[in-house]
TrEMBL record:
Molecular function GO terms recorded: hydrolase activity; metal ion binding
Every Calcineurin-like phosphoesterase domain range: 1-150
Species name: Tepidibacillus fermentans
Family: Belongs to the metallophosphoesterase superfamily. YfcE family.
InterPro entries in the cross-refs: Calcineurin-like_PHP_lpxH (IPR024654), Metallo-depent_PP-like (IPR029052), Phosphodiesterase_MJ0936/Vps29 (IPR000979)
Name of protein: Phosphoesterase
């Protein structure tokens, strides 16, 4: 199973739409995971019309997105438990908040966003995966998005582009 992973799209403030390179990945994927900060309900609806989507609301999403998606969830695909959260909060770093949020949950992967910085780390058998942002690179040298291949093992990949 192939999953395209995006976060922090901030449409239309940071980009007019999702870049073509991301749509090419989505076309060959089975699922989209969006880790929050769509900022456009239209984007959520459009992505849902293309492929199945799992996602959460970010700190910049309005009540319509929050009510539909919530702030944290655990889903199961291809035998793996995937936690999804945006990662915003007051105390600690983004990764510290994310790890704390799922400390008592059984997960194989945790997808998160908020920092706009691509990140992947295995910790105690759990993959922590942030795809960065395809539209707002902030302090990162390039835009990015992620893919997860779920088979006999979890194969994460971050794609960087200008």
């Amino acid at each position: 199973m192939k999953i395209t992973v995006i976060s922090d799209t901030h449409i239309p403030r940071r980009g007019k739409w999702i870049p073509d390179i991301v749509f090419q990945s989505i076309e060959s994927s089975d699922l989209i995971i969006h880790a929050g900060d769509f900022t456009s309900y239209e984007l959520l609806v459009d992505l849902q019309s293309i492929k199945p989507l799992e996602g959460v609301a970010g700190n910049n999403d309005g009540p319509e997105i929050l009510m539909q998606l919530g702030k944290k969830k655990i889903v199961q695909y291809a035998g793996y438990h995937i936690g999804i959260i945006h990662g915003d909060g007051i105390y600690g770093t983004t990764i510290q908040r994310v790890k704390q949020a799922f400390a008592k949950d059984r997960v194989d992967i945790v997808v998160f966003g908020h920092s706009h910085q691509a990140y992947q780390e295995w910790d105690d058998g759990v993959l922590y995966f942030n795809p960065g942002s395809p539209t707002d690179k902030r302090r990162s040298p390039k835009y990015s998005f992620g893919e997860l291949e779920l088979g006999e093992k979890i194969e994460p990949k971050i794609h960087y582009f200008l």
